[in-house]
Design brief:
With about 270 residues, this protein is α+β, with helices and mostly antiparallel strands. It is about 30% helix and about 30% strand. Strands 5, 6, 7, 8 and 9 form a five-stranded antiparallel beta sheet that branches. Strands 1-2-3-4 form a four-stranded antiparallel beta sheet. The chain has a two-stranded antiparallel ribbon with strand order 10-11. The mean pLDDT is about 90.
Length: about 270
């Protein structure tokens, strides 16, 4: 990915742990590395197709003057999210803030913190087999799209499927969606659980009936196996109610462990 770099933008802000820092303020130096595709603006010589770094610098100044944080870590987390939300062309940003006048009582040049944040692509499975099934699914899509740091880009059809595991229950309505998100996998899982709880999801019986079921299928090409989270989702290659809606929105998404596309996995399941 191409880069646009801003180095040591000097601003006077009121951030710090000590009360006098929040009142009197001090100098900070901000640097940014923007991961963007500069091919189109470069070929067309058109600023509208790129990221106006002048506007970005003024945005940083205004944001830092309007907010006060104790920690440099908090400064960067909130600033990175604000920038990524405002400029869709920025896929990833590395931000550094330097504090030349850090009040530690010892001589030093600067104290600094640097972070890298960016957009990730996740695929989420949706299911319901209680009550107003379609309403539960559509509300979940809406809540995800309206959540901070999330954008729903594609949604499959909702498909009626037979129950899996515990078969003596009502049929399910299943679907899948593509999500662009700034959240980590763990943060995303927490958000999904919050949305399930709003739908009065009760976890009593594995594979049992539920008002709403939301599962992370993929998160970029990440392979993760913890007590709380398994990515890619375990056994998805054997579940028609996952593969069929996924094939609508991402037929050529490649499973990072099995090294097969969704279309291939669906064909093997029915082969």
């Amino acid at each position: 990915m191409d880069k646009i770099k801003i180095k040591d933008l000097e601003l006077y802000c009121r951030h710090g742990v000590f009360p006098e820092e929040n009142v009197l303020g001090q100098k900070f130096l901000f640097s940014a590395i923007l991961s963007v595709d500069t091919r189109a603006p470069g070929k067309a010589d058109d600023l509208e197709k790129s990221v106006n770094y002048g506007e970005l610098c003024h945005f940083i100044r205004e944001f830092m003057e309007e907010h006060t944080y104790k920690l440099l870590e908090a400064v960067l987390e909130h600033l990175a999210e604000a920038i990524l939300q405002k400029w869709e062309k920025i896929e990833e940003i590395t931000l550094e803030v330097k504090k030349p006048w850090a009040p530690i009582g010892l001589p030093l040049e600067t104290v600094s913190v640097e972070i890298t944040r960016g957009w990730h692509t996740a695929y989420i499975a949706l299911g319901s087999n209680m009550g107003e099934k379609e309403t539960y699914l559509r509300n979940a899509v809406k809540e995800l799209d309206e959540s901070a740091g999330c954008r729903v880009e594609k949604v499959s059809d909702f498909i009626a499927t037979a129950p899996y595991g515990v078969t003596e229950q009502d049929e399910f309505l299943n679907g899948a969606l593509k999500l662009r998100t700034l959240l980590t996998p763990e943060e995303l899982l927490e958000l999904l659980h919050e949305i399930e709880a709003k739908a009065e999801r009760v976890r009593t019986l594995r594979w049992g009936p539920r008002t709403l079921d939301l599962d992370i299928l993929f998160y970029d090409n990440l392979v993760l196996d913890t007590e709380e989270l398994h990515i890619p989702h375990i056994d998805m290659q054997n579940r028609d109610f996952v593969l069929k809606p996924m094939a609508q929105i991402a037929p050529y998404m490649r499973h990072p462990v099995l090294n097969k596309t969704i279309k291939q996995l669906e064909g093997e399941l029915h082969g």
